[in-house]
Specification:
This is Transposase. The chain is 52% helix and 0% strand. The chain contains 4 helices and no strands.
Length: 90
């Protein structure tokens, strides 16, 4: 990877991809902020494990909730069901 220097880049240096680690939560500034960051980081990591785009999952799930998705079918909104539905649609 070209980092603009004569020396080769160290592992992870100058990567463009967002890396989610516990260190990032240290900059949340408040305990509630750190808890929110942990929730979001966990959601994104789970989306990556299921090979689902986090933005589309969040937007589709929030849209379904706003549109009055019935509580009796809340399991339909779980990530693993979203992954199965989106793979069938592709």
């Amino acid at each position: 990877m070209d980092n603009g220097h004569d020396k080769p880049a160290r592992h992870g240096q100058n990567e463009r991809e967002l890396t989610l680690t516990r260190k990032n939560a240290l900059f949340a500034g408040h305990e509630v902020g750190a808890e929110n960051w942990a929730l979001l980081a966990s959601l994104i990591a789970n989306c990556k494990m299921c090979d689902v785009d986090p933005v589309s999952y969040l937007s589709d799930t929030l849209r379904a909730l706003l549109d009055g998705h019935p509580r009796s079918r809340i399991d339909d909104l779980m990530l693993w069901n979203f992954a199965a539905a989106s793979s069938r649609a592709a």
